[in-house]
Amino acid sequence: MDPLLTAAGDRLSAYHDRLARLVAVDSGSGQLDGLRRAADLVHEWCGAAGLAVEREPVRGPAGVPLGDVLIARRRGRGRGRILLAGHLDTVFPAGTAATRPFQVADGRAYGPGVSDDKGGLLAGLAAVETLAALGREEYGELVLVCTPDEEIGSPGSRPVLRTLAGATDVALCLECARDNGDLVSARKGVADLEILLRGRAAHAGIEPERGANALLAAARLTVALDALNGRWPGVTVNVGVLESGARPNVVADRARMLVDLRAWRPAEYDAALAAIRRLVAAPAVSGVRAELTVHSPTPPWEPGPEQRWLAELATKVGAELGLTVSHTATGGCADANLLAQAGATVLDGLGPIGGDDHSPGEWLDLDSVVPRVALLAGLIDEIARR
């Protein structure tokens, strides 16, 4: 067996134990106590693996604390600087780890965050340990960064990621591979839009003409936003939330909309956002005003020649391990988008194979752990030697 596979296999028991312990901690975005306990565990394991660990608290809009970014470093013998990026937070509410605890069945692990991204994050640490066990440390420095706010767009972690990206040669992101095993070589950009509409309340039976119906304006804006779908290739606009009104006999004076915008290419992303701004600026009901806020805009990650080279190198390393490795684009965004925007050469999906992220059925293929850790370790080694 290839030495990488053997050394990765030697880490499997520790990986299983760590995964069970980490998934047992509720660490949804903003759950500060759980995020601290999750960071404490990873801090302990990184320290035991010989990595120097630092932690930096980050805050979101209005100074809201979001948890600690954990940065673990290991020096090698060479010059190349390689960043491994994962995240500690999940999308699940507090109490999920108790009501839906970690379990293993038919070769799969289940539990909140088991695939996104606790399984991938731990694969990154296992790859560092694998290379250390083999003495293959031809890199200059390996940096493992774990953010606490990726699931909400990394509003607090962005400055840290930008700094790390500027000091790295290659960023390997630890989101799990697609459920068919594909790596990720491109991601859509995303903008989370909040639209507040303000009208004028009135009695719906006696003097409706004195009102300005914010709900009606929101409904017409929903139709107009939906009509943007198909205007640009690959651009999607989805009104996911529309809140308004308190009583049927009152003309609604307020409405709130939450909208998801996604696009493959920066030019189309910018064009769609500009079109949305124009629609919001001119509500279709007289007397209604609308205000748009863009939360944590994340630009598209559009691959260039360096990204394609990196994906091809992963395919080559996989073939040497007896693995068929391919890559694809995905509509979900991640910290990979931000690292690419900051100038890093990026490849994502380097965790084990998983699926059904963000759902009660989220799973991780335990049989994929050893080969995927070996693939990641081999890719790090190949990059460092080049």
Automatic annotation (TrEMBL):
Its cofactor is Zn(2+). Coiled coil: none annotated. The keyword Zinc applies. Residues 186-285 form the Peptidase M20 dimerisation domain. Pfam families: M20_dimer (PF07687), Peptidase_M20 (PF01546). Keywords: Hydrolase, Metal-binding, Zinc. Transmembrane segments: none annotated. InterPro entries: ArgE/DapE_CS (IPR001261), Bact_exopeptidase_dim_dom (IPR036264), Pept_M20_glutamate_carboxypep (IPR017150), Peptidase_M20 (IPR002933), Peptidase_M20_dimer (IPR011650), Peptidase_M20A (IPR050072). This is M20 family metallopeptidase.
